[in-house]
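Repro:
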Amino acid sequence: MTKKNDIEKYESVQYWFKGLSKTSIKNYRSEFPDFLDWLKKQGLDLNPDELIELRKQDLKEEDKRRQRRFEKLVEEYYRELYDDPDVAEYSAYSKLRTARSFFGRNHYALEYRKGDLPTPTPKEVEYVPTNDDVRTMWEVANSKRDQALLLSLYQTGLSEQDVGSWDLEKFLPVLKSKDHYFEYYRGKTKILVQGCLGEDAVVALKQYLTIRENPTEGPVFVSRGGGRGGGKAGDPIDTRRINEIIQGLAKLADLPENFKTKYLRDAFRAKCEEAEIPSDTTERMMGWKLGGAKSHYRLPKPVIVKAYRKAYPLLTINGSVRPSEKYASQIAEFNAHLLKIISTSSDPKLRKSAGILLSDIDKISLSVINDKAFPSFKALVKRALENSRA
């Protein structure tokens, strides 16, 4: 596998990069080795300078097929990626632009007629939620599970299939780790997913799992039973139900009708682009299949962690779900206690009071709770429950 840092020692690459923006150089540096590796599989084990020299010689040949050898090779490379259902169309197109840019800026441009190459289907930008939108959805959620689910989707950029398949055996260590890094191979496709959980999502997940009395095995997200999907309480939550939850939160938050879960992925990608994260790193975090030899190799963990830390300030919903660990677990215990009262008490007045209090706690900006405020908060909970028994 060609290492991306190796290519810059070649004169043709130095000339190529001269005058380009930092973002373009990052993407080209990341994607060009894939093209070199693909050429090697076709029997052309050449470095960048040798490629330019061969292109120069081809253009001097009388044989039209020799003159257009690299047009044909680049087209084959592009179509192989474009036709792969696990590679995003725009990812394939980006790699085509990389190859064409290399030859073009070295004054040996590849010539194609209009219509020779397929172009990505224009994506209609339906709606990209903002951080304020996601925060509003979090605020209107009536359960810790739905809050944790929302933030897990938004702050990883993964699909509902991915997040719905998370299991505790793999993800409890992620919650306890310093950088919250995770990696796994997805189901039958065996596509490698590498990413990180944001602090907002980590705290929300810990609160949700505390309410579930901290299970150590089974799915991370479970059904509460009684939904339209017919799942029993404790069953893994399916993708249909996840979509219903997200659409329901969007409706409560007065966001556009027909809000789709994939909009959260679109927002994640937009934030990564804003943070100037290389496209192959973003796509690995989002679970897309990378082209070329990279599809079989994991990116170094520090690369993923560094990229995520750069993007996370653009993804956090203003710290609204990041109370100190000291209080997050205790607040979650209060919620669990209140839920138990609501579900088991025979006293309707007590059940109603517990329900109102639970709703009030969910609306509190937990980040403002500190050493001085928490005793008063705790006393408020105790007094409210005692008054309901009077």
